[in-house]
Amino acid sequence: MHTVLVASNNAHKLQEMREIIALAGASDAIRLITPNDLGLSLDPDETADTYEGNALLKARAFADALHAPSPNPSPMGRGNLLVLADDSGMEVDALGGRPGIYSARYHKSAPGGDGCAAVLAEMKDVPDDMRAAHFRCVIALITPNGEEHVFEGACEGHIGYEKRGLNGFGFDPVFVVARDANRRAMAELSSEEKHRISHRGVAMRKATEFLLRHTP
């Protein structure tokens, strides 16, 4: 079994990754653990200007922490763990690709922390044919011997006119999925439906397939 440290403190991301692995039938082969499981407290600054750069920055920071001397050695053996990090965001054509890599910061800086409402306000006068948007995700994986691998995923859609649905998180309530025949918002999809078409689902399946091809 591969034991993989997810270089994130985002509980939503971890839950989605575990669900994606389960849908791929790989739960018996891949185990995801959190920084908290190892007593790690780390929050690297995302200073890169690309999704790939930020994902690698986070993965490298946690990989370095795993190999640093620790007063509390992990029973799992830190040196045998893989590290996985992702960076993702929503790009809106009419906003010049914003918020993009700054999606998380866009939410935090929005009034009431409501990034969805902020996007809708910015898009209130934008016509139907100019509301295209894209979710993008890059996953970086570092092996115990330091090899780095990158996997990418994307999901096409457009910005709706209101928040819809109660599932998901982030911009899911305002992102209408192009591949969905009923033109539902991402937050209106079930978890299984979302994971089969989402940016993170695509990237995570690629990472999962890579791990299944390589015996620990």
3D architecture notes:
The chain has helices at 11-23, 51-67, 103-109, 115-122, 191-197, 199-213; strands at 2-6, 30-33, 82-92, 132-142, 148-159, 175-177. The protein has 216 residues and is an alpha/beta fold. It has a single domain, classed as Alpha-Beta Complex (Maf protein), CATH 3.90.950. A hairpin with a 5-residue loop joins strand 4 and strand 5 (148-159). The longest helix has 17 residues, at 51-67.
Poorly predicted parts: none
Instruction: Determine the strand fraction and express it as a percent band.
Output: 15-25%
**Count of spatially separate domains:** 1
The CATH topology name reads Maf protein
Distance between the termini: 6 Å
Percent of residues in helices comes to 25-40%
Spell the H/E element sequence: EHEHEHHEEEHH
What is the annotated CATH architecture?
A: Alpha-Beta Complex
Name of the level-1 CATH class: Alpha Beta
Record field, number of beta strands: 6
Class from helix and strand fractions: alpha/beta
Count of DSSP helices?
6
Q: What is the global morphology?
A: globular
Largest sheet, order of strands side by side?
A: 2-1-3-4-5-6
- Overall mean pLDDT stands at 91
